[in-house]
Amino acid sequence: MRHPSRMIVPLLVPIMVAIGRPVFAQIDLSGEWGGTFYEDLPHRGGVQLGDYTGLPLNDAGWRKAQSWDEAVVATHERQCIPHIATYALRGPATIRFVKAVDPDSGRLLAYNLQGSYGRPRMIWMDGRPHPSDLAPHTWAGFSTGRWERNTLVVSTTHVKMGWIQRNGAPTSDLATMTEQFIRHGDYLMVVSVVNDPVFLSEPFIRTSNFVLSLAANADAWGSCGPAQTVDELPGAPKGYVPHHLPGDTAHIQEFATKNGVPVHAARGGAETTYPEYALKLQQLARDASDPRNLVTQPPPRGENPRRGEPSQATGDVRVVPVQGNVYLLAGAGGNMAVQIGEDGVLLVDTGARGVTDKVVAAIGRLSDKPIRFILNTHAHPDHMGGNETLARAGNRGEGGRPADNPGPGAMVMAHEAVLRAVSAGAGRPGAMPVAAWPTDTYSGESKDMYSNGEPVQLFHQPAAHTDGDSVVLFRRSDVVVTGDVFDMTSYPVIDAARGGSFTGVIAALNRIIDLTVPKDWQEGGTMVIPGQGRVADEADVVEYRDMLTIIRDRIQDLIKKGMTLDQVQAARPTFEYDGRYGATTGPWTTSMLVEAAYRDLSGKK
Predict the structure, then answer these.
(1) pLDDT tens digits along 454-497
(2) Do residues 299 and 269 touch, judged by C-beta distance below 8 A?
(3) Rounded to whole angstroms, how far apart are CA atoms 326 and 320?
């Protein structure tokens, strides 16, 4: 018979070995880490204009990069922009990982990643999902992490439009990033993979290395708001956007000339990221006359389809809290805004016809009070098609509906141009039933009202998307509702038949920028509900305004050169933005936008 102690010892050995190993081999990343610059110092400091070597930029990404003017960071709206998540770990380098743990169980809830001139980034480790596609984007994005053996894998979404290199090499707000944080003793390697369907032809992979630094102290960089911006471009006109026109490439040729780099290589592209490109580079260097060594315009290619179709009246109405007592309702046509409170419900726009029962149900989940006011931003049916039903379901208290409509109903307010657009002369049918018409209009530049404890203002934007556009400001909630003068899914529709104009849309966007005030680091503060798409803030409006301003300047330049509409279309002045906002089919295409802009800017109606 075997002695019991001899049987226990062999069993204890593997148990003790197992106990000595951390569960899932998780490694603590907390502490201060300093960057090791020796691997690629030129790209972690002041990278040169025109140096896009090793970046998988597609044609759109390259053209946006070469049009970038470094003076743009001196504009008021961009002086407080920090390093975006897709770039932040590249410098000034010192970072800090701080644990957030449950005080009772000690379970790791999140890492807070600070420093490197980026905004503090929470990496959530508690399994929470990423936000809705309608949620706002930030410079830090939204990050979740998970352990894969000894590697922390982080997925980041909801990042604003930004850059992967500090010389204009862009990323869009559709970009996502996956990072692997791998610690080996006192060394930390971060492998980041950025995917961007708009500006990159394939994933961009980059490594950054850090060393544990007990004496370091990562800076949180304090605050930066409107009070700290200064006039760095005195004399610049309102809405001025520094940029280089297509063909103006002297600023990026200097890098290739001084460093003896073939322009084809300096331009970057997917093939320049692979070792095999070295052979091609040698051939290009031997043949200086190779046309691929010349700076040319991106080769023609078909427009990308629209990446985000405007919200359709699907009946799936989603409610998204925005700020204060204002909510976004999406999915019933154009975006709607709902303000709730003791007075009742105020509704901005009513969506399309046919799904108003879903809209009523969604509003009922927010408030049991009646709809008192409906404000229409313009006269298109995807934004006011539900007027008749929702107004009839409302109750202002002392009436407000037309005499031939039964019941008191809600008051419907809009600019007088909206009433002209949907009504008609005596004996003729209007564009909408009488019960859908505004019951109260204003004719001046603005209209003030008060609802649910806060001032509400309507600002008329003449000759913009239409001739009757109103921008609505909820002053206490600090929310702006734009209607279709600002669209996060598409180029703006210019309804010339109803008095719309391209220059009027740019003027409306500049007005919205005047109304918005960012909280800190050009982020948050006044929130913006666009006509279509996700919730935005001033930085998003600035990107949209800058895009249209650059397109305007390009078309104006082509008109000055005597080009016809067909020639302007062939020059593709919207090229790098088509993958984000363009469309080749449907009710509003890229070519229709270019035609509207051309006719407006040339005076040829």
Answers:
(1) 999 999 999 999 999 999 999 999 999 999 999 999 999 999 99
(2) no
(3) 9
Judge residue 518's burial from the number of C-beta atoms within 10 Å of its C-beta, 0-12 exposed, 13-18 middle, 19 or more buried: buried
Query: How many other C-beta atoms can be found within 10 angstroms of the C-beta atom of residue 475?
Result: 15
90, 196 contact by CB (below 8 A):
no
Task: Give the C-alpha separation, 359 to 327, whole Å.
Answer: 13
The DSSP secondary-structure symbol of 491 reads P
For residues 53, 58, 63, 69, the Cα torsion angle rounded to the nearest 10 degrees is -50
Give the distance between the most distant pair of CA atoms in the chain: 112
Parallel, antiparallel, or unpaired: how do β-strands 527-529 and 536-537 relate? antiparallel
Q: What is the DSSP string of 104-151?
A: TT--EEEEEEEETTBPPEEEE-S-PPPPPTTSPPBSS-EEEEEEETTE
The three-state secondary structure class of 99 is: strand
Strands 187-195 and 176-184: antiparallel
Neighbours of 197 (CB within 10 A): 15
**pLDDT grade for 427, boundaries at 50, 70 and 90:** low
Q: Is the dihedral of CA 501, 503, 506, 507 positive or negative?
A: negative
Q: Which of 161, 178, 205, 140 is nearest to 60 (CA)?
A: 161
Among 52-66, 213-227, 435-449, 586-600, whose mean pLDDT is lowest? Answer: 213-227
Rounded Cα distance between 451 and 237, Å, is 36
How far is residue 106's CA from residue 50's CA, in Å, rounded to a whole number?
A: 49
Write down the pTM of the prediction. 0.91
Please spell the DSSP secondary structure of 289-327, one letter per residue: T-GGGS--PPPP-PPPPPSSPPPPEEEEEEEEEEETTEE
Q: Can you state the percent helix, strand and coil of the chain, rounding each to 5?
A: 30, 25, 45
565-602 core/surface letters (b: 16 or more CB in 10 A; e: else): beebbebbbbbbbbbbbbbeeeebbbbebbbbbbbbbb
Scan for tokens 């040169």, then name that residue. 48
d(CA 142, CA 156): 5
pLDDT at 293: 46
In whole angstroms, what is the distance from residue 386 CA to residue 392 CA? 10
Mean pLDDT of 73-86: 94
Q: What is the mean pLDDT of residues 160-186?
A: 96
Q: State the chain's mean pLDDT as an integer.
A: 88
The residue among 67, 49, 53, 48 whose CA lies nearest residue 266 is 53
3-state secondary structure of 171: strand
Of the candidate ranges 12-26, 500-514, 557-571, the one whose mean pLDDT is the lowest? 12-26
Using H for helix, E for strand and C for coil, what is the string for 369-428? CCEEEEECCCCCHHHHCCHHHHHHHCECCCCCCCCCCCCCECEEEEEHHHHHHHCCCCCC
CB atoms under 10 Å from CB of 408, counted, come to: 17
Domains in the chain (CATH in brackets) are 27-50+69-219 (2.40.128), 313-602 (3.60.15.10)
Cα 123–129–132 angle (5° rounding)? 110
For residue 217, what pLDDT is reported?
A: 81
The pLDDT assigned to 289 comes to 53
